[in-house]
């Protein structure tokens, strides 16, 4: 901060000091020069001084620098006295010893040298005496002074100053100065200003005088302030269908085995469904599981699940926030039809090292975070591993799953570096490894690897940029060694390299422009089927690589028109270029993102939106949720990109003192070129997969109502959704028409859906949580008859998805003990005790039929968690 | 046990007070010794009080406060209070920088003096203080005479005859004092720059000592309660019509000040709407919070503290004789005064021992809120981690804070309508105000889980909420609460200047270079006092004055050059 550079010039010695505080400067002068120099430190002087002069002029230059900031420099008896804002008298007034003095005139001269003895308001109930106490001689007196902010000391302008009976009124000017004429004697003076706490002062006015007042910002009930800001933003933004989850609410929702999980909490939101328990993929507003873009620190996650979907990929200790866009998707995002789920991790504690250790029934996890370079570079590292093999061993001997096991590990690393106030760099890495087997013979593995680098830059107050490059990889591998001669290894790999630029520019206070470009290079190795072990007779087969580039440019504008109306309009143009020789077709087109908001009052608003989306990568799956062996396929000459549009509208109302948010949203959605597979299709290692697929179109519509209370002892939300999602084969001329070319239910069509998440806080330490979930059973295709054909019994199936499995109902409860509030403890322990599926209802996951002894057909219902699952988890934070 | 002890102490104190009133017919005479007699406006006047009981023949054991008044011919211009222990007190007051040039009278008296029917406030002990205002030409009307050099030289010559009694002092590197009397003596010691400006008065300690031999017992009335434990603060209820006074009779009124530890005093309102707080002295200038317990929150009834100063009419002090030769000394004095006030010379003081109120001397449970998770409301703070107190409905049906009392008989029983809440040491009777107080302003919560008597009011538990700045931030009291500026007794201080090390940061132009208000001398011992001379050269005077145990004056003044 301070540097002293005596520079030797040829003739006169040049001296210079830079950025020194006044007292430092004086200390330096004292060292360099002979006369004694004294200064009274003024803590309110935050200025630093730079002086440059030759040695002979230096003292003078330094003094004039100080004088320029209200210091007085007085020479007395060979010493210098430096004071701020007051003078220093070293003479007597002229005519001091005159025989006769005009001693009747009260001189105010002393005030130059002594602080004016201003009254200074500290308490409201105090009686302030204005003017010198004594007999009152005047009828009226002038009271003046400054009004400042208590915390910042800044002058407050426009403060109304009036006396109690309204006889006099004044208001403060830009420097906080006021002047009011009051009747002498006792009185009450009021000060009031917008969002400031009113002040009422008792005065005893004897004469003209001064009274300085400090005013304080009004403290609204702190409870209320949080809600206000949260629900206010709901009423300010034009975007709709956005769900934000805070970490605290994620941790409070009871989940299976007590492992708090962001994705499971997303499933409790209206409009989000899964096909069943332990299914990790999710369906948003009638979309399929592959139509969701899952971004984890800008990296795309293809399989967000661990352990058959019991847990998600996201370590909740590291998450800062989770945002789900289910309707208005900002123009900067694209490439998926239904939704965008953005998961962000924290940047790490910049002041001290901290961490946590968690023990649960299935996993143990730990994380550390802290500064690498103080206040500039931080890191956060988290890891999870599982020890769940014991659970599979509990399975009955005859289940056929003996010898199985499941395990996973994942590691997160985030490093943030603040280059300067306007630039920061962020690096994220994610690695996960899953392995499971149902028997000794077959094992499944899959890995996620993500890495991204982000540069945030603020060019000016109104202009900023985010630049990201990312690498994502997802791969799976299946090994079957049941029969050594037929042992094989099946693997598949998706890689993508992406870059993204987002610029934000505030054109005015009411108008924000966002624009940028992004590009993704896809590199898919769809399948490799190779022999496993020396005895295997399998012939290796490798499917052709698929490569393509998806590029997009976009611009969107958020415009607040008046107080009531806000418009958000954007356009994204994306184009798809195959990068393999035999594929010629490119696809491209504009995507529109429009939403608007009309506020009737501060607490009541209406929104509507329309957007179109395009998707160039598709998941071909014969299961309804994401499974490790799903095949991902790029668009090609035969497979067109999926396109879709959604129109939505909603009403938002905040009431009961901003405590409760009510939202009602409705949508209608169409998707074209959604891919379904033909009956009997081979999905794995099929070089001509496109021939086994057919295009469908999807229509979905629904209404969502949600009541949410975020703050208070009782908080949580209740939502009800009515929604339909149906498919129809697009090619009406095809030979085999599914359901005769009519609409049929999508496998994830669950019309009625009630969700309740409630948390009751007894205190900040002890709380009770409940999670209730009801939904209509999902559609299935059932055998409705049998016939004998060439000596065997054959089944006659119903029309596709025309039956439903029984309804789904589940209640989970948890009791949460947060750590002690005493912060000086070394470690803080939190405990969660809970029970998943309290009612023990055997919720069916699927229904299947087997043919026993040739002719008997028996139906089976599979339940994943058919009983109560109690759990205890411990979390240690340090 | 603790509560029993408290009761005993309170009863004992009351008994002693009564006995002091009934039996001690003290006739008090007070002498004030000052560091010098000539000042510039803005200077501090260092005082030492000697209060003699002329009836008993020793230093008075009755009054513990002496009242000082500085008078111009128009009346009182400044006042001060000094606390006394066994007839000796010390303190200082600062001359206002607006005082016009002239001579002022400084009188001192105790409240016991007001019981003497014919007490003379302007007596032999009255001090003449010369004040020069170096900022303005303003003079006391007809109070200043500019004299010729000739006359001044004549004055100077006549002042040389020095008075000496009972002491021998010498100055080398330090000051050595020997007492020539047979009995012990208590004295004040001053060393100051002798710049030739003459005092308006000859030393008067000998005349004072002479006046201590009473010719006859004065007539006494005992209408004023003497300040035995400490200052007795009188107040009266206002904001109420005469006929409505009975509605507040018997209610307890309280005084306390922000930042005080145990300085809470209560008194019941009597039939005539008057109050009398028996304090154990409040030190320094304070904002005194005046509250009446259990009063309608909208009521404007409050009480006013009455001034203890008598403000008698005094004859004018002699005219100040000013001479142009004083120019240089006055500039020096003026500069020194400004330096002293600007350059934080309060580090040069040392505070002497004084008596404190020990009401809350017992151990308390302290929560430093910075050690805990912060919560937005006080109710949450209490529920979450302050287990010694709780929020419940009290006997009046209103929310109140209850303290878990840990007395022997009622272990772990919560108080019910009888706990005292303090914010920075100031009672807050409406617990709702404390429950809705912003806890982010609070630094500590101190809980005293015992039974306390404040005056005659009993509390089962006291909770003190202490804010960071100890100044009741953003507390809005009821209408009936008044906060008044209150001049407490001066802190007993000596200006020994021991902490001056080098002159790098402190320009040492001190005019009074040493002051100690209370030095005890023994007949056979030489007392050695170390002092530091300032950075300038000049003539300095040493004045030692005081009284022996048997009421004889001791006085000695010598000068030395440095």
Give me the secondary-structure category of chain A. mainly beta
Calculate the mean pLDDT score of chain B and round it: 86
Structural class of chain B: mainly beta
Q: Please give the alpha-carbon distance between the first and last residues of chain B.
A: 61 Å
Choose one word for the global shape of chain A.
elongated
Largest interface: A-B, 55 and 64 residues
Note the overall shape of chain B. elongated
Largest sheet of chain A: 22 strands, antiparallel, barrel
Low-confidence stretches of chain B: 1-16
Question: What does the main sheet of chain B amount to?
Answer: 9 strands, mixed
**Discrete helix count of chain A:** 6
Classify the oligomer: heterodimer
- The Cα radius of gyration of chain A reads 37 Å
Q: Which regions of chain A have little confidence, pLDDT < 50, spanning 5+ residues? A: 1-10, 220-230
> Could you give the count of β-strands of chain B?
36
What portion of the residues of chain A fall into strands of 2 or more residues?
over 45%
What is the CA-atom radius of gyration of chain B, in angstroms? Answer: 27 Å
Describe this structure in words.
The complex is a heterodimer of chains A (878) and B (562). Chain A starts with a strand and ends with a strand. Chain A contains 6 helices and 57 strands. Chain A has 878 residues and is mainly β. Chain A is elongated, with a radius of gyration of 37 Å. Chain B is mainly β and 562 residues long. Helix content of chain B is 12%, strand content 38%. In chain B, the strands form 9 sheets. In chain B, strands 1, 2, 3, 4, 5, 6, 7, 8 and 9 form a 9-stranded mixed beta sheet that branches. The radius of gyration of chain B is 27 Å and the shape is elongated. The relative contact order of chain B is 0.19. At the A-B interface, strand 7 of A face helix 4, helix 5 and strand 31 of B.
């Amino acid at each position: 901060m301070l540097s002293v550079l005596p520079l030797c010039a040829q003739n006169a010695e040049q001296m210079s000091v830079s950025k020194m505080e006044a007292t430092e400067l004086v200390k330096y002068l004292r060292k360099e020069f002979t006369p004694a120099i004294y200064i009274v430190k003024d803590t309110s002087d935050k200025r630093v001084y730079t002086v440059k002069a030759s040695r002979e002029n230096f003292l003078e230059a330094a003094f004039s620098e100080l004088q320029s900031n209200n210091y007085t420099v007085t020479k007395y008896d060979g010493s210098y006295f430096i004071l701020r804002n007051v003078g220093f008298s070293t003479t007597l007034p002229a005519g001091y010893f005159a025989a006769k003095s005009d001693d009747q005139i009260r001189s105010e001269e002393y005030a130059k040298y002594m602080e004016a003895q201003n009254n200074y308001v500290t308490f409201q109930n105090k009686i302030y005496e204005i003017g010198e106490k004594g007999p009152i001689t005047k009828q009226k007196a002038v009271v003046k002074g400054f009004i400042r902010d208590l915390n910042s000391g800044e002058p407050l302008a426009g403060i109304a100053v009036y006396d109690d009976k309204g006889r006099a009124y004044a208001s403060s000017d830009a420097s906080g100065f006021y002047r009011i004429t009051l009747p002498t004697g006792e009185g009450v003076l009021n000060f009031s200003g917008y969002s400031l706490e009113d002040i009422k002062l008792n005065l005893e006015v004897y004469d003209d005088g001064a009274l300085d007042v400090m005013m304080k910002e009004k403290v609204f009930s702190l409870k209320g302030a949080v809600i206000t800001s949260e629900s206010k933003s709901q009423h300010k933004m034009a975007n709709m269908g956005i769900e934000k989850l805070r970490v605290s609410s994620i941790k409070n929702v009871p989940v299976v085995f007590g492992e708090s999980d962001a994705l499971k909490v997303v499933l409790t939101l209206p409009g989000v469904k899964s096909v069943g328990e332990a299914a990790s993929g999710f369906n948003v507003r009638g979309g399929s599981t592959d139509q969701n873009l899952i971004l984890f620190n800008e990296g795309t996650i293809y399989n967000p699940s661990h352990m058959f979907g019991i847990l998600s990929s996201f370590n909740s200790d590291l998450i800062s926030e989770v945002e789900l866009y289910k309707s208005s998707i900002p123009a900067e995002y694209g490439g998926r039809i239904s939704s965008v789920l953005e998961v962000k991790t924290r940047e790490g504690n910049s002041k001290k090292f901290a961490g946590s250790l968690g023990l649960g029934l299935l996993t143990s996890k730990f994380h550390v975070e802290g500064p690498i370079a103080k206040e500039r570079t931080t890191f956060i590292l988290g890891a999870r591993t599982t020890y769940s093999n014991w659970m599979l061993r509990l399975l009955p001997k005859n289940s056929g799953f003996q010898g199985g096991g499941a395990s996973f590990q994942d590691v997160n690393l985030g490093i943030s570096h603040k280059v300067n106030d306007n630039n920061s760099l962020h690096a994220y890495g994610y690695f996960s490894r899953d392995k499971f087997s149902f028997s000794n013979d077959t094992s499944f593995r899959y890995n996620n690897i993500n890495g991204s680098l982000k540069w945030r830059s603020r060019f000016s107050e109104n202009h900023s940029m985010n630049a990201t490059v990312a690498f994502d990889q997802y791969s799976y591998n299946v090994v079957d060694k049941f029969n050594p001669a037929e042992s094989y290894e099946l693997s598949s790999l998706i890689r993508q390299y992406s870059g993204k630029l987002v610029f934000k520019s505030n054109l005015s206070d009411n108008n924000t422009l966002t624009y940028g470009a992004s590009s993704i290079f896809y590199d898919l190795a769809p399948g490799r089927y190779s022999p496993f072990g020396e005895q295997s007779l399998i012939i290796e087969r490798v499917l052709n690589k698929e490569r393509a580039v998806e590029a997009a440019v976009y611009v969107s504008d958020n415009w607040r028109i008046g107080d009531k109306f806000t418009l958000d309009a954007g356009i994204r143009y994306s184009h798809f270029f195959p990068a393999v020789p035999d594929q010629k077709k490119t696809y491209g087109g504009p995507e529109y993102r429009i939403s608007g908001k009309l506020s009737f009052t501060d607490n009541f608003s209406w929104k509507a939106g329309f957007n179109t989306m395009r998707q160039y990568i598709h998941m071909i799956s014969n299961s309804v949720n994401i499974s490790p062996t799903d095949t991902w396929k790029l668009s090609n000459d035969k497979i067109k990109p999926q396109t879709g549009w959604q129109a939505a509208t909603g009403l938002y109302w905040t009431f009961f003192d901003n405590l409760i948010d009510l939202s009602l949203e409705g949508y209608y959605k169409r998707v074209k070129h959604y891919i379904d597979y033909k009956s009997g299709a081979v999905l794995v290692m099929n070089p001509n997969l496109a021939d086994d697929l057919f295009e469908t179109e999807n229509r979905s519509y629904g209404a969502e109502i949600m009541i949410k209370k975020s703050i208070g002892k009782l908080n949580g939300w209740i939502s009800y959704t009515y929604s339909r999602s149906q498919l129809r084969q697009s090619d009406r001329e095809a030979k085999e028409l599914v359901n005769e070319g009519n609409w049929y239910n999508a496998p994830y069509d669950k019309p009625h859906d009630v969700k309740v998440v409630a948390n009751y806080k007894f205190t900040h330490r002890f709380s009770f949580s409940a999670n209730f979930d009801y939904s209509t059973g999902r559609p299935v295709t059932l055998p409705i008859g049998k016939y004998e054909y060439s000596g065997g019994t054959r089944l006659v199936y119903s029309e596709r998805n025309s039956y439903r499995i029984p309804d789904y109902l589940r209640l989970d409860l948890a009791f949460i003990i947060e750590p002690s509030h005493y912060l000086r403890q070394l470690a803080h322990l939190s405990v969660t005790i809970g029970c998943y599926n309290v009612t023990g209802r055997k919720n069916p996951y699927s229904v299947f039929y087997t043919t026993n002894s040739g002719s008997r057909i028996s139906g089976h219902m599979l339940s994943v968690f058919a009983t109560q699952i109690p759990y205890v988890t411990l979390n240690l934070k340090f | 046990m603790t509560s029993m002890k408290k009761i005993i102490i309170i009863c004992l104190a009351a008994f002693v007070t009564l006995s002091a009133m009934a039996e001690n017919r003290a006739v008090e005479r007070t002498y004030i010794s000052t560091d010098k007699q000539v000042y510039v406006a803005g200077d501090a006047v260092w005082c030492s009080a000697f209060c003699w009981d002329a009836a008993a023949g020793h230093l008075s054991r009755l009054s513990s406060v002496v009242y000082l008044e500085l008078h111009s011919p128009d009346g009182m211009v400044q006042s001060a209070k000094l606390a006394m222990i066994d007839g000796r007190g010390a303190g200082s007051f600062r001359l206002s920088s607006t005082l016009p040039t002239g001579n002022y009278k400084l009188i001192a008296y105790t409240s016991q003096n007001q019981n003497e029917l014919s007490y003379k406030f302007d007596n032999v002990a009255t001090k003449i203080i010369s004040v020069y205002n170096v900022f303005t030409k303003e003079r006391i009307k007809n109070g200043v005479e500019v004299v010729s050099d000739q006359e001044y030289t004549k004055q100077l010559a006549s002042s040389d005859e020095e008075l000496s009694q009972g002491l021998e002092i010498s100055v080398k590197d330090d000051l050595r004092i020997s007492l020539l009397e047979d009995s012990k003596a208590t004295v004040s010691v001053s060393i100051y720059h002798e710049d030739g400006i003459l005092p308006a008065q000859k030393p008067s300690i000998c005349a004072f000592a002479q006046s201590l031999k009473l010719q006859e017992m004065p007539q006494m009335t005992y209408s004023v309660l003497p300040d035995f434990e400490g200052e007795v603060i009188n107040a009266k209820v206002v904001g109420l019509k005469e006929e409505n006074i009975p509605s507040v009779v018997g209610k307890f009124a309280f005084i306390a000040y922000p930042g005080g530890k145990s300085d809470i005093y209560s008194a019941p309102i009597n039939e005539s709407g008057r109050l009398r707080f028996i304090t154990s002295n409040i030190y320094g200038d304070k904002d005194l919070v005046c509250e009446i317990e259990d009063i309608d929150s909208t009521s404007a009834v409050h009480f006013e503290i009455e001034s203890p100063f008598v403000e008698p009419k005094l004859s004018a002090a002699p005219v100040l004789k000013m001479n142009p030769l004083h120019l240089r000394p006055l500039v020096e004095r003026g500069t020194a005064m400004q330096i002293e006030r600007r350059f934080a010379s309060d580090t040069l003081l040392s505070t002497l021992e004084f008596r404190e109120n020990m009401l809350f001397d017992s151990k308390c449970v302290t929560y430093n809120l910075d050690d805990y998770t912060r919560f937005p409301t006080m109710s949450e703070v209490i529920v979450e981690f302050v287990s010694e107190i709780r929020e419940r409905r009290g006997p009046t049906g209103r929310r109140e804070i209850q303290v878990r009392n840990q007395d022997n008989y009622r272990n772990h029983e919560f108080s019910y309508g009888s706990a005292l809440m303090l914010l920075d040491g100031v009672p807050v009777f409406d617990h709702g105000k404390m429950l809705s107080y912003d806890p982010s302003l609070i630094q500590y919560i101190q809980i005293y889980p015992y039974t306390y008597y404040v005056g005659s009011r009993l509390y089962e538990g006291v909770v003190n909420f202490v804010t960071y700045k100890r100044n009741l931030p953003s507390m809005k009291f009821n209408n009936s609460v008044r906060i008044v500026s209150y001049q407490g007794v001066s802190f007993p201080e000596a200006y020994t200047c021991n902490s001056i090390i080098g002159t790098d940061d402190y320009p040492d132009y001190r005019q009074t270079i040493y002051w100690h208000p209370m030095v005890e001398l023994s007949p056979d011992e030489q007392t050695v006092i170390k002092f530091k001379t300032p950075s300038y050269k000049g003539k300095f005077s040493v004045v030692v004055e005081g009284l022996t145990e048997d009421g004889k004056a001791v006085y000695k003044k010598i000068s030395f050059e440095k």
